[in-house]
Fold:
Amino acid sequence: MRHARGAATTALAAAVVLVLALAGCGAERPGPGGGTNTDAGHGTGTGTGSGPVGAETLCPSSMPGYGAPPAETPSASRAPHSSLTPLPLSTGLPARDGVRVTGLYALPQRQSQDCEPARVSVDFTVTNHEKTAMSYTITLGLRTDSRGAADTVTQTVPAVGPGRTVKGTVVTGELSAPASAVTDVSVLKVRGVPADEAPSGSGPCPASGVRLSPDRGDAAMGLRVLTLYLENCGKGAYRLDGRPELRVLDPGHAPVPGVQVVPGDRIATGTGADGAPRPLVLRPGERAYTVLVWRDTTEAGAPVDAPYVRVWPRPGARPVTLTPELDLGTTGRLGVGPWKKDPGR
Structure:
């Protein structure tokens, strides 16, 4: 019996030592001497041991691990300029479609979150040369080497008055390279729609009493599918019958000639764009949807690429201009399904 108790005591002591060793290993983090705090945000540091430091060591479970989506989406919120590190920016950068980059900064890493991804802040101006207020969606490319833009970031600037120039700022999410490696910024794409025709999925209810907004879309094997949602945010019933009216527009907002808008089942079946139109009545808070479908099939002839689609939910309704970036190939056809009530709302 005494021998059994001694063995048990020895086993317990060994287990305690093992637990303490594991706890100490998990609690100890490489300090500045190991070079990991400087590079923690980039995933390149190594610890004081013989092997590389894993992501679980650099980023405890309470912080986002490497490869995870950025904790913050691009936004216009950031630290004051006095706390930012200016990065080199080519002088005399040309404006593109009214947008000019004016500043590039590295955001400081928070001392309490040394695993925070590397991020930068970009200042820009946008000038509205149109005769009506416009809402802009701006895509910027961040160049990190001679191969060109390695990361992109998008920012929306709502309701810029005609002839006005406004300042904007966008903060990136996690970058694919250290912030110090960003060498320049370029304006990749600018899309503008009339402010009173901008899509709205949330916020105050428009004067029309309905909100119209698209989903992210789906593309597979050359078939494109985009769902549009219409929500009755007003106080009365909203009636729909048939399909919405569509007009495909070029970058200058002019109608694209030769494009045919056809029933969705003429493009493909099983996409949600098929079925016979039926009258619908949306009560306040209810939602309907319609599906756009097209193919990026390229044969003989010039392909049709059009960024905008103007949508009238029903005859006489106020239009909404979307930016689905249509790539119709050489088919020149866009399918649209009938309005259907959303069963989830």
Notes: Residues 1-77 have pLDDT under 50 and may be disordered. The longest strand covers residues 148-160. Residues 267 and 323 are 20 Å apart (CA to CA).
